[in-house]
Amino acid sequence: MHQLADIEILLVQQKKEWTEILTGIESKNRYSITDPAGIQFGMAAEESSFLGRFFLKTLRSFTVHILSPETDPILRLEKAFSWYFHEIQVFSSTNEFLGTVRREFSVFSRNFTVLDTRHDPLFTIQGPLFRPWTFRIEKNNMEVGLIAKKWSGMGKEMFTDADNFNIAFPPGIDNAQKSILLGALFLIDMIYFERSN
After folding, report:
1. In this predicted structure, which of 110-124, 148-162, 181-195 has the lowest mean pLDDT?
2. pLDDT tens profile 37-71
3. In terms of pTM, does the model score above 0.85?
4. Residue 56, in any domain of the structure
5. Domain of residue 158, residue span
6. Which helix (H) or strand (E) holds 62?
7. I need a labelling partner for 90 at 20 to 30 A (CA). Which of 3, 96, 106, 179 fits?
């Protein structure tokens, strides 16, 4: 988790397998995580069941392991099955619980609450309805950071659900809060950008 200390922005790029592209059968998600200069921060790998991916699609339960370039554990993200009120819990490499990101009910926007270990709110995340690739990280109704999906190119957007994201962390926050917000990025990807059909 200390690896996040000097990080202000991270880029997260989903990798796709040729078998998934050719067959349309969802495989376990894998991601590359870099800084804006392209220096490898780490990688992320989904752990989930084939039946969950095949039948439950975006509703499925999963664990995402975030690893260093040397494959040392950095973070673990856990999401349980849910119809609507999706949550992801974030744990350190030593299994310390860091916090939760929870989807909130809303009709005209996409809202999340970022909670600490005592379930006290740290931030809210709001995705405006007419800016579908943008999620504002807010504190006291002020934008302090951003999670955004980036255009992946015509071929990738048309034929895969592989996504590129960046996250700009709020200034001055600690490593635990950065870790929870990174978990929010993976939850947003699963809910809104994975294929559901």
Report:
1. 148-162
2. 999 999 999 999 988 888 898 899 999 999 999 99
3. yes
4. yes
5. 2-88+147-193
6. strand 62-67
7. 106
pLDDT score at 162 = 62
160 contacts 193 by C-beta, under 8 angstroms = no
162: left (phi over 0), alpha (psi -120 to 50) or beta: beta
Among the ranges given (73-77, 127-131, 185-189), the one the predictor scored with the smallest mean pLDDT: 127-131
Total domains in the fold of the chain:
1
| Residue 70, domain member (yes or no) | yes
